[in-house]
Amino acid sequence: MSYEKVSQAKHIVVGSKQVVKALKAGSVREVIVADDVDSHVVDRVLLTAEEMNVNVTHVDSMKKLGKACGIEVGAAAVAITM
């Protein structure tokens, strides 16, 4: 379901650093994080999302998340923006 949500979203931000930046800017509706990523990669994303009161959804595969974004590589974190 979350993969569909990402692929159908009009505005997304891909990558943990870019997601943190978008969260701090206050333009994120939801964050999607892959569970098969090392925790140190997404710790900052999860902490910032919690601070900004943004819902975080977990998916099982970084590779599938990247594919849902339309990129050829895996994605650790994706933000659906407003």
TrEMBL record:
Residues 4-81 form the Ribosomal protein eL8/eL30/eS12/Gadd45 domain. GO terms for molecular function: RNA binding. The keyword Transit peptide does not apply. Keywords: Ribonucleoprotein, Ribosomal protein, RNA-binding. It holds the Pfam family Ribosomal_L7Ae. The keyword RNA-binding applies. InterPro entries: Ribosomal_eL30-like_sf (IPR029064), Ribosomal_eL8/eL30/eS12/Gad45 (IPR004038), RNA_bf_YbxF-like (IPR023460). GO terms for cellular component: ribosome. Belongs to the eukaryotic ribosomal protein eL8 family. NCBIfam families: PRK13602.1 (NF010125). This is RNA-binding protein E2626_15390. It comes from Jeotgalibacillus salarius.
